[in-house]
Amino acid sequence: MSAQSTRRELLQDAAALAATAGLGAALAGDAAASPKARRRPRVPASRRGRRVAVLGGGMAGLAAAHELRERGFEVDVYERRALGGKARSILVPWSARGGRRALPGEHGFRFFPGFYHHVPDTMRRIPFGRNPNGVWDNLVDATETKAPRTGGRADGTAFALAPDPNEARTPDGMRRLLLEAFRSDTLPPHELAYFVERVMVFLASCDERRFGQWEHVSWWDFIRAERMSAEYQKVLARGLTRAVVAAKEKVASTRTIGNMGEAFVYNIQNRGNDGSPDRVLNAPTNEAWIDPWVALLRRLGVRFHLGQSVDALRVQRGRVDYARVSDRRGRRRAVEADWFVCAVPAERARKLWSRRVLALDPSLELMDELFVDWMNGIQYYLRKPLHIIRGHLTFVDAPWALTALTQEQFWAGRKFARDYGDGTVVDCFSVDVSDWDTPGIVYGKPAKRCTAPEVAREVLEQIKLHLNDNGSDVLTDDMVHSWFLDPAIAWSEKGRRNTNEEPLLVNTVGTWEKRPRARTEIPNLFLAGDYVQTNVDLATMEGANESGRAAVNALLDAAGSQAEPVPMYKLYVPPEFEAEKRADAELYRRGQPHALDVG
Question: Is residue 303 part of a domain?
């Protein structure tokens, strides 16, 4: 049974948010990895020149609204669909029975690595029941990973490193750890050794080389995948980029893939972390996080305007005069404010850059060269339990680059059969599809050209090949009660292909300098979104939150505000590579290759 999003679902979601009651006093964190609780600052009365229109209610928009309101600004948020953006829960229409809640669907399963700092800081300041650390206490550890293979091959662990402080904190120790982490019976030893040396080149590269050279080289070319075996290409070139970063290895920037790989290495070693390396929420995202956040913001005085799509920015006398928004019936109105934070996704933001906007900030035109791709989820609701591991699964041999986890094992105090659906669903198997362009094994078509039922069948068959390849029936058709495909995916009969309302920004080669900063050349316009230049530099909840904070700090500066700037965090930088990086900086200035870059 399939279920697709409807206008009724959107209206029900909006009504549910509007009805959310206020909760207790907020908590906040300082800049340390394990912040102590502090009191939420008193919200001063609004004054003239302090009206802010936040255009977009996703992660970036909510983060900006939160920080602005705490600093005394009058904030209105305009959102066309539902608050929370890609992170929100999505109710499965008509799935509730017997007083239970509707089955919870989603854009894709949530994942909170330990190197996130901005999101946890915000979570600690969102009250939740008796939790001493607010919503942050709703994060629970996913302690295992598994990478099933097909054809009877031995399953592996997905990017797992044994955290050994003594081994990890020297370059040679890191090399040994990486060799052990990626060791596999199917990878030729000389290719594994070569791959690790390429990773070492990146780890020991100075920032100037990372931005000046590796930003302009694809991951595929950097690790010399073209000359290697099919297994090397599948596991180390394709698997890591698509499963971990949702990027295409032949076009993704080495700087981006390298940065994230480095972050995950230190994350798994608990270096520079805020909490455990791998965490998920203990309930559907809206219940555990988004609804309490929206309730807090309403209590603080933030006004939300749902069903409002931003159509245009009107500039006059060198500033944004107003934003034009339209409701679901097409009725338009002008939104006036002193300051505007544009927090819509990149593909929507660049449609707002009129000739007059670009005349004031020509650099925004470079956003036309940014690339978005698809990473969307499908949920299978199960009649029978599916116990595999307490964590994430990566299906290495799946043409559609699938990752997944089962959810009820993490949901404290909640039972599917008791609380959701019709009483016969016992769990949700949530799957992310990262490759929508490669032909599948059932219909021979890429996911973009499959109908929703075909997507559901194809994903299930690809997973069954991994789980049932040793003669056991781990996952069978009779276990599946129903499924729910991300409603952002819509089938077009005319084009015989899918469209995607919510694609994901991918950092392709050479696009860092084409991404804007939070502060534009238009004095009252600021940008917040995962496409904005950030330290984490990836389209994630963390990147969106960081960009929202950056927009607020830029606005505070432009407004001459005396309010305390919003705390900003940086990814962990290991000290053991500092000497190599200094030496490499000198080589780079001379136009010479990295000392370890021997081809």
Answer: yes
- Give the mean pLDDT of the chain: 89
Rounded to the nearest 10 degrees, what angle do helices 171-181 and 189-203 cross at? 140
**Cα torsion for 62, 63, 69, 74, to the nearest 10°?**
-50
309 shares its domain with 411: no
Mean pLDDT lowest among 38-47, 485-494, 577-586: 38-47
Same domain, 186 and 206: yes
Segment 35-71, tens digit of pLDDT: 433 444 444 444 458 999 999 999 999 999 999 999 9
Q: What percent of the chain has pLDDT over 70?
A: 89
Cα 316 from Cα 306, distance rounded (Å): 27
CA atoms in the 13 A half-sphere facing the CB of 547? 32
Number of domains in the chain: 3
Q: For residues 419 and 99, what is the distance between their CA atoms, to the nearest angstrom?
A: 8
For the sheet with 144-146, list strands across it. Answer: 144-146, 391-395, 402-406, 427-433, 376-382, 480-485
Mapping DSSP onto H, E and C, the string for 124-147 reads HCCCCCCCCCHHHHHEEECCEEEE
- 249-258 as b/e: b if 16+ CB within 10 A: bbbbbbbbbb
Strand-pair partners of 324: 312, 334
Instruction: Report pLDDT for 25.
Output: 30
Of the pLDDT bands very low, low, confident and very high (cuts 50, 70, 90), residue 166 is low
Task: Supply the pLDDT for residue 153.
Answer: 86
Q: Are residues 401 and 496 in the same domain?
A: yes
The per-residue pLDDT for 49 is: 86
Of the candidates 80, 73, 102, the residue with the CA atom closest to the CA atom of residue 90: 102
Do 461 and 523 belong to one domain? no
Q: How many helices (H) and strands (E) does the chain have?
A: 19, 25
My answer on whether 254 and 168 are in the same domain is: yes
Paired tokens of 147:
């990478």
- In terms of residue numbers, what domain contains 336? 7-22+47-86+284-369+510-559
Relative orientation angle of helices 189-203 and 254-268, to the nearest 10 degrees: 100
Q: Which residues contact 162 (CB under 8 A, 6 or more apart)?
A: 177, 180
Higher-scoring residue by pLDDT: 42, 531? 531
CATH number at residue 321: 3.50.50.60
Question: Is the domain of 333 the same as that of 415?
Answer: no
Token pair belonging to 235: 């596991």
Same domain as 409, residue 494: yes
48: Cβ–Cβ under 8 A, 6 or more apart, which residues?
A: none
Residues 6 or more apart whose CB falls under 8 angstroms from that of 578 comprise none
